[in-house]
């Protein structure tokens, strides 16, 4: 995983909606992200930090397996027609959003890594 992989999310302040980001590998119990727009401060508990890391590792594992996955296909039956979709196409469109419900609020955390090459 690149050292510069970051997680982005939008400030919960409705009047602000600033996009905040932090490096996923450097997040720890002392990490506090302060919104540049409204000054709201965000800290991440252990459970949340573990989720960020698992998510980042999942995306990284898929990227590492790119060579093998590139040789595989997913067979789909659509209205009696059998089609094969190269896994690679699915990968390049892989969703890198982690949707979490935190204290009744929905957060979409986006992991930013370099895109897969076509
Ligand atoms: Zn804000």
List the helices and strands and how they pair.
Layout: E1 6-10, E2 19-23, E3 32-34, E4 41-43, H1 46-64, H2 66-69, E5 73-78, E6 81-86, H3 87-92, E7 97-102, E8 105-112
Antiparallel strand pairs: 1-2, 1-8, 3-4, 5-6, 7-8
The structure holds zinc ion.
Describe the structure.
Helices cover 25% and strands 36% of the residues. With 118 residues, it is of the alpha+beta class. It has a domain at 6-64 and 94-112. It has a 4-stranded antiparallel β-sheet with strand order 2-1-8-7, with helices on one face. A hairpin with a 2-residue loop joins strand 7 and strand 8 (105-112). The longest helix is centred in the middle third of the chain and has 19 residues, at 46-64. The model has no long low-confidence stretch (mean pLDDT 81). Bound molecules: zinc ion (ZN).
**SSE-based structural type:** alpha+beta
**Binned strand content:** 35-45%
The number of distinct helices, counting runs of at least 4 residues, comes to 3
Strand order within the widest sheet? 2-1-8-7
Oligomer: single chain
Order of helices and strands: EEEEHHEEHEE
Helix proportion range: 10-25%
Ligands, deduplicated: zinc ion
General shape: elongated
For the sheet with most strands, the description reads:
4 strands, antiparallel
Low-confidence stretches: none
The radius of gyration computed from the alpha-carbon positions, rounded to a whole number of angstroms, is 18 Å
Total E-strand runs: 8
Distance between the termini: 19 Å
> Kindly state the mean pLDDT as a whole number?
81
